């Protein structure tokens, strides 16, 4: 099922790129994710650094409003400052569809829905000089949420942006725990 959803996402983006009036681009950068929700104690978890990289299409031309679908590989999760330095490493393919509003010279605000498809989940920790790791099937295969942020278009097709991912689907299946993926992304992109 995951493979079909990923293929559909890539086909959608390819079709959007073929019809893009402003172009297609690549974007990547750093992630700083954590678990959020009422069942998470902030004293237990800290942001875990990861990365994201992928492609996007800018639709509707050079006007004040653009629609931007994308497909990105993204590493999320969290880290616990316990004695084991335990951490969750969650690999997703994110598929956002953003509405971008251009304001002022080069600046833009954006927001939109995002669905994420889990490709791998594992939990790790350290005992002395050794690291242990095990794959887990406790994490839901899809994660729905919202993305919003601020971007700036640099000269010659480059762009930078900061965004926040607000996960709205609980992370764990077969659990009533109110725990969600939440995090910041800092990105550098290039539109062809």
Please, how many domains? 1
CATH topology: Porin
End-to-end separation in angstroms reads 32 Å
How many β-strands, per DSSP? 10
Outline the low-pLDDT stretches: none
Mean of residue pLDDT values = 86
Please report the first level of CATH classification, the CATH class: Mainly Beta
Helix content: under 10%
> What is the alpha-carbon Rg in Å?
18 Å
Biggest β-sheet, characterized? 8 strands, antiparallel, barrel
Individual helix count: 1
Strand content range: over 45%
Query: What strand order characterises the main sheet?
Result: 1-3-4-5-6-8-9-10
What is the N-to-C succession of helices and strands? HEEEEEEEEEE
Structural class: mainly beta
CATH architecture group name: Beta Barrel
Shape: elongated
Protein name: Outer membrane protein beta-barrel domain-containing protein
Pfam family, one: OMP_b-brl_2
Domain Outer membrane protein beta-barrel: 20-172
Keywords: Signal
């Amino acid at each position: 099922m995951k493979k079909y959803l990923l293929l559909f996402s890539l086909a959608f983006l390819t079709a959007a790129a073929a019809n893009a009036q402003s172009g297609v681009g690549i974007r990547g950068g750093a992630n700083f994710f954590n678990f959020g929700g009422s069942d998470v104690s902030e004293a237990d978890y800290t942001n875990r650094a990861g990365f994201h990289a992928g492609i996007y299409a800018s639709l509707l031309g050079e006007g004040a409003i653009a629609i931007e679908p994308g497909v990105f590989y993204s590493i999320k999760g969290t880290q616990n400052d316990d004695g084991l330095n335990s951490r969750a490493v969650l690999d997703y393919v994110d598929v956002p569809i953003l509405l971008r509003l251009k304001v002022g010279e080069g600046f833009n605000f954006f927001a939109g829905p995002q669905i994420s498809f889990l490709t791998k989940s594992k939990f790790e920790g350290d005992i002395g000089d050794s690291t242990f790791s095990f794959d887990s099937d406790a994490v839901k295969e899809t994660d729905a949420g919202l993305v919003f942020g601020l971007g700036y278009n640099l000269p010659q097709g480059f762009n930078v942006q900061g965004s926040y991912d607000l996960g709205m689907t609980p992370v764990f299946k077969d659990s009533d725990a109110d725990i969600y993926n939440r995090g910041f992304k800092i990105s550098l992109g290039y539109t062809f």
